[in-house]
Design a protein that fits this description.
Layout (H helix, E strand, L loop, with lengths): L5 H13 L6 E6 L3 H24 L14 H13 E3 L11 E9 L9 H17 L1 H10 L19 E3 L1 E2 L2 E2 H21 L8 E6 L2 E6 H29 L2 H10 L1 H4 L4 H23 L2 E9 L6 H13 L8 E7 L1 H9 L11 H8 L2 E4 L5 H12 L3 H5 L17 H4 L24 H13 L2 H5 L6 H20 L7 H13 L1 H20 L13 H14 L5 H4 L5 H11 L4 H8 L7 H12 L9 H4 L4 H4 L4 H10 L4 H9 L4 H6 L2 H8 L3 H12 L3 H4 L5 H6 L22
Helix pairs in contact: 1-2, 1-19, 3-5, 4-5, 4-8, 4-10, 4-11, 5-7, 6-7, 11-12, 17-19, 17-20, 19-20, 21-22, 21-26, 29-30
Length: 732
């Protein structure tokens, strides 16, 4: 039996959370590794089925749920309900204890050739519903239950023991009228056959084409009594046949092929109505099966599509699947780096709300960023790629029996002592399978305690929109489940809640702090400074304060990232006054922080390290100094650098007498500095290259011209510090 991996725990935590999440909901499953996403999705399907069976097995209510695969009697009962009854919406059947998950795969790449990719999403849902529930059942619902006026009527939820009411015509149950219309002709016909009436009774004669025929009055009555129900039955059968042949899938495809229809403003509205019909059918089946039914739509390969189609699918998720009573849970499995770049380059990106981060924040109710692979997992992946492993090409990454045998066994107690940023997601946590069994009572108690502790403080930082609140609550629940599954020591409840709020409301600043701590650890390792260990008691606010000047210099490049963050003053108050997080807390909580988009830290790391060049050859003397080093240099450091560059000593005297520091060079005016130093042209050129970065005309590469025209604020200015002085953006 394979061992438990971090990816298994991530899938388990998501599965447990989805049983509690109210629909509609959208889960953002973010990772740059497609095979890891596939593995987590596959594991999620297994764990969700197991969780549904566990919940159903522990259910002690009086109304047991029906079988998912009904027997013949169950099928007949369903047809009876569809034809002659209407569901009554009660508080009980609107919040069933049991749940059933229907997984629907939607690979956007398969529909990428269509101009209306989002319509393909609707078609895929219809196909899946017909497979899971049956095409005939869906058509029966459409003919016998669907009423277009129900969409504009207010849904009324009542209290009561009854969940069904009979359809009525003139205060008479429909089933009774149908039964009566069938029984009356049969009774009359039976009576005629059993009792011989006098032939002259009720006889009438008529001449037809010169011949005389005798027609019984009773025979005419029998024909009439059979004719009315027969006509209605024929009409009903005709509607069923028509909808079986011309179903929603065919209607949408025809509308897509018709340019005049597909270009209409109301085409999406027509598709939305069809989706509403699908939602009501699922709701009907919930009452019949006596369980919640959640349709988990797994959207993959969206990052392979063009920017306009990506935006269209995201809009469809927001419009088509966001009905208040919608049973859909969308899992958006994407590489956030690619999605963000493509959406921001789309032609429809006109304002801040249209940009990728803002668009995702409006849609996603639970963001889950899969941590990057550790070194051992990357080594295992490399060896399997080198051996041309067919298994890897076919699907999930990290099957434990294929993991390199030389990896040392690691106990749970050792996991807390590993390097902060190494998380063994793709390798076994231990040498035997871990039973993932976190009880609902444990989770709910911890979530309630987490939300209740320091509630007044947290309320000041939680935004006043329901989407943000749901995102925080769902993230807290996932975090607690992961920590319980890992059997790690849980911190104080207020720390979990406040950390989730911190990652949710200030993702850019928190990612910056994590990157700074990581760089400091790496620098200690490079310098072989074993005695200089990082001070775990150092506050995160102090880490941010020491590096905020560098972040300020980068602000023009990270405009989109900073726009995600909330009030800078509230961030300062959060870390400086109300919640005193330290590096020790960061090490304990970072391994379970899944609501923080890792692509933000990756972009910050890329920008921060762009100007870091190898300390060798001509680069040591002439290459631009990284801002990280320059901004912290004092006058003595600048003098030493000038001495290494073999400048005359008089310039060192000017630097000391005018107290020129690294900050002065970064934020000062280049013309004032040039005038003050009074260097020759050659000396000034070398000095400017070393301390002030590349001139503006050398930074603009031809491939960046298009991006500059579309996004002027994205000009790579990190190497040219002084050109940033024209931009004013608050970083605190």
């Amino acid at each position: 039996m394979s061992s438990t991996t971090k990816d298994d725990i991530f899938a388990y935590a998501l599965s447990k959370t989805l049983t509690k999440v109210s629909s509609p909901a959208t889960v953002g499953l973010y990772s740059s590794c497609g095979s890891r996403i596939r593995r987590i999705l596959e594991k999620m399907e297994v764990y969700m089925s197991q969780e549904a069976l566990r919940i159903e097995g522990n259910y002690k209510g009086k109304h047991q749920p029906r079988s998912v695969k009904p027997s013949l009697s169950g099928m007949l009962m369903l047809v009876w309900r569809l034809l002659f009854h209407k569901p009554i919406w009660t508080h009980e059947n609107q919040d069933h204890h049991n749940v059933r998950f229907i997984n629907v795969n939607f690979s956007a790449w398969h529909f990428a050739g269509s101009d209306l990719l989002w319509a393909g999403l609707a078609i895929r849902l219809f196909q899946a519903m017909q497979i899971h529930f049956g095409k005939l059942q869906f058509v029966l619902y459409q003919v016998a239950q669907h009423d277009v006026d129900d969409e504009i009527k207010k849904k009324i939820v009542v209290d009561g023991p009854h969940h069904w009411r009979s359809k009525r015509i003139c205060c008479c149950p429909l089933w009774f009228l149908v039964l009566l219309s069938l029984l009356v002709p049969i009774i009359i016909l039976t009576y005629i056959l059993m009792v011989e009436l006098p032939k002259h009774v009720g006889k009438a004669t008529a001449k037809v084409n010169g011949t005389t025929s005798h027609v019984s009055v009773l025979e005419g009555l029998i024909i009439a009594s059979f004719g009315v129900p027969a006509a209605n039955a024929l009409r009903f059968v005709f509607l069923i046949g028509k909808n079986l042949i011309f179903n929603q899938e065919l209607n949408i495809k025809k509308a897509m092929d018709n340019e005049r229809v597909s270009s209409k403003l109301g085409f999406m509205n027509d598709v939305r109505k069809e989706m509403w019909l699908l939602s009501r059918f699922v709701e009907f089946m919930e009452v019949f099966e006596r369980r919640r039914i959640r349709v988990v739509l797994r959207i993959t390969n969206l990052d392979r599509c063009s920017p306009p189609k990506i935006v269209a699918v995201l809009d469809a998720i927001n419009i088509l699947l966001s009905d208040e009573d919608s049973p859909f849970i969308s899992v958006l499995a994407i590489d956030p780096d690619i999605i963000i770049q493509k959406v921001n380059s789309a032609d429809s990106c006109f304002c801040k709300e249209d940009r990728a981060y803002a668009l995702l924040n409006r849609i996603v109710t639970l963001s889950f960023s899969v941590p990057p692979l550790c070194e051992d997992s990357k080594l295992s992946l490399f060896h399997r790629l080198a051996s041309n492993s067919k298994y890897l090409e076919d699907g999930s990454m990290g099957e434990d029996k294929h993991i390199t045998a030389g990896i040392k066994k690691t106990s749970l107690s050792d996991l807390s002592s590993v390097v902060l940023f190494e998380t063994n997601e793709g390798i076994p946590l231990m040498d035997k399978t871990v039973e993932l069994n976190v009880t609902d009572a444990e989770i709910e108690n911890w979530v309630k305690n987490t939300l209740a502790t320091n509630e007044r403080k947290l309320n000041e930082y939680i935004l006043d929109d329901s989407m943000s609140m749901r995102r925080v609550i769902n993230s807290i629940r996932v975090t607690v489940i992961i920590m319980k599954a890992l059997k790690t020591e849980l911190p104080q409840p207020d720390l979990i809640a406040s950390w989730v709020v911190l990652a949710n409301h200030w993702p850019c600043r928190l990612s910056w702090i994590i990157q700074c701590v990581e760089d400091a650890q790496q620098r200690d390792y490079i310098d072989r400074n074993e005695q200089s260990e990082s001070d775990d008691s150092k506050s995160l606010w102090k880490v941010f304060s020491e590096s905020r000047a560098e972040l300020y210099v980068m602000r023009a490049q990270i405009e989109d990232l900073l726009e995600q963050d909330g009030d800078p003053e509230m961030f300062e108050r959060f870390l400086k006054v109300d919640f005193h997080f330290t590096i020790k807390d960061l090490k304990a909580l970072n391994m379970v922080t899944v609501n923080l988009n890792h692509s933000i830290k990756k972009e910050l790391a890329l920008i921060r390290g762009t100007s870091r060049l190898k300390n060798s050859g001509w680069m040591r003397t002439f290459a631009p100094l990284p801002v990280t080093a320059l901004i912290n240099m004092d006058s003595e450091d600048i003098c030493k650098e000038l001495e290494n560059m073999e400048y005359p000593r008089k310039y060192a005297g000017i630097v000391k007498s005018n107290h020129i520091t690294g900050s002065a060079l970064v934020f000062g005016d280049p013309d004032d500095i040039k005038k003050l130093l009074n260097m020759t042209f050659g000396e000034w050129t070398t000095f400017r290259l070393r301390f002030l970065g590349l001139p503006l005309h050398l930074q603009l590469q031809p491939k960046n011209v298009h991006n500059l025209q579309r996004h002027p604020s994205r000009l790579h200015l990190y190497g040219s510090h002084h050109s940033l002085s024209k931009h004013h953006s608050t970083v605190s």
